[in-house]
Design brief:
Number of strands: 9
Shape: globular
Largest sheet: 6 strands, antiparallel
Number of domains: 1
CATH topology: Peptide Deformylase
Structural class: alpha+beta
CATH class: Alpha Beta
CATH architecture: Alpha-Beta Complex
């Protein structure tokens, strides 16, 4: 947090199928694996391109969740359109703000469009946790960190204050972990 590159709008990826973009995606996934994260934007490793990688692991889902895992996915030049006005507070963490968490209002349903490494455009509706994760990573591409979206800074805190199991123990609604996508 505080580095100028995290405050700027990232540039579009001109050729998603370029070999250097594929290498960058592999590097980002390996970096995220090393720290046990769920997502990483290129700008977080000082590459100001509109690109991020993400996954949804079963281990982050509470009991009763209806969502299936999503393997590592490469997102290039995403566009998010809210579906409706409904927002919900979600607990978030970020690799750019180590040791912190806070409540962030996010749209519960979004229309998501992006390219992958094959440069084919995909469009789907994402809901709940999946929608929140996509909005969080996309914010990095526009120069936002989650505290900039928070409504109540009193919810920003150190995970260490709650102990090492703080994040998994934070309240999460199984209803947020629903079927992740609806192809369109």
């Amino acid at each position: 947090m505080g580095h100028d590159i995290l405050k700027q709008v990232s540039d579009p990826v001109e050729d998603p199928s370029a070999p250097d973009i594929a290498r960058l995606a592999v590097d980002m996934i390996e970096t995220c694996e090393d720290v046990g994260g769920n997502g990483l934007a290129a700008v977080q490793i000082y590459v100001p391109l509109r690109m991020f990688v993400y996954r949804v692991r079963k281990s982050v889902m509470p009991n009763g969740a209806q969502m299936t895992e999503i393997p590592w996915t490469v997102v290039i030049n995403p566009v998010i359109t809210p579906v409706g006005d409904t927002k919900k507070l979600f607990w978030e963490r970020c690799l750019s703000l180590p040791g912190l968490f806070g409540q962030v209002p996010r749209f519960t349903d979004i229309l998501f469009e992006s390219s992958g490494l094959d440069d084919a455009r995909k469009k789907f509706t994402a809901r709940g946790f999946h929608a929140r994760l996509l909005q969080h990573e996309n914010d990095h591409l526009d120069g936002y960190l989650y505290p900039m979206r928070m409504l109540d800074m009193a919810t920003l805190g150190y995970i260490s204050e709650l102990g090492p199991e703080a994040y998994p123990a934070l309240p999460r609604d199984p209803a947020d972990f629903i079927d992740p996508t609806e192809e369109r």
